[in-house]
Specification:
Layout: E1 14-15, E2 35-37, E3 40-43, E4 53-57, E5 61-62, H1 66-77, E6 86-94, E7 100-106, H2 112-126, E8 128-129, E9 131-136, E10 141-142
Parallel strand pairs: 5-8, 7-9
Antiparallel strand pairs: 1-10, 2-3, 3-4, 4-9, 6-7
Length: 145
């Protein structure tokens, strides 16, 4: 009998440097101050997580089911389709603060304020208590092996 070895590519299969090729601007381009807003708050202290900025909904509708979090992230994407720098969205995972949320990944720091504004309005509109992590990085590309 022959055995099969399956290798899952968890890391090292794509290059995703934090401010590598393809990233436009810098964190200095973000002008949205951290703090509370109507229906959400902005956190720029996302230590030990992938997100650079967290937009945390303060509404009454708590979204905790993994499938519902992913669906919410997919819905949020419909409000960001005109931003060419957005290359990733949805899913569920650690975001900015303890707990689970969804994410938006983009490659242009100059679009972060727009993403924060739209994500905040979306959270307010749905009355969500949900985290959205915003991460700015290069668009992952396959690594030649």
């Amino acid at each position: 009998m022959r055995g099969w070895i399956v290798i899952l590519c968890v890391s090292g299969c794509v290059a995703d440097p934090a401010n590598g090729p393809g990233v436009v601007g810098s964190s200095a381009d973000v002008t949205t101050p951290p703090g509370p807003y109507v229906g959400y708050r902005v956190d720029i202290g996302c230590d030990n997580h992938f997100a650079d900025i967290g937009v945390i909904g303060t509404g009454a509708v708590v979204v905790t089911d993994i499938a519902a979090i992913d669906a919410a992230g997919q819905d949020l994407r419909t409000h960001l389709v005109d931003l060419a720098s957005v290359w990733g969205w949805g899913g569920a995972g650690l975001v900015c603060e303890p707990g689970v949320g969804t994410e938006v990944s983009l490659s242009d720091w100059r679009d972060v304020d727009t993403v924060v504004e739209r994500a905040g309005a979306w959270l307010r509109e749905h009355d969500y208590a949900l985290q959205i992590g915003i991460s700015v990085s290069s668009i992952p590309v396959p690594v030649a092996q």
